[in-house]
Amino acid sequence: MEKLTIVAEDTKKALGTLKEIINTPYSVIVRDATIQRFEYSFEIFWKFVKEYLRVKEGIICNSPKSCFREAFNVKLLTEEETVTALEMTDDRNLISHTYHEEVAEEIYRKIKGYSKLMEKVYRNLIET
Prior knowledge:
The protein is mostly helical and 128 residues long. It has a single domain, classed as Nucleotidyltransferases  domain 2 (Four Helix Bundle (Hemerythrin (Met), subunit A), Up-down Bundle), CATH 1.20.120.330. The chain is built from five helices and no strands.
């Protein structure tokens, strides 16, 4: 099985676990679990975009932000989606600071939108 297929399957599974928890009634435990699922979903998602760009477009990128910018350059992301993906990257980098309640709450509130973006991009790449 080629690497792109494997990463695509892992991305699908991770996004599924994230989607599953998003609509769970709020508690601090649910918030923290949602943030954790977002973290690993983001990691496999950007690596899927990276592998897609390498295989389908011949583009090498080595960081989430560079991959999202390249995805925009080849019209896989709109300008608005790219801005959101870059913000999502920044929030993912802030996750190590979730011991600050304000940071954890702020990131938690954004995750539903991030999940929708990742699912949309995933579907678009799978269909192309």
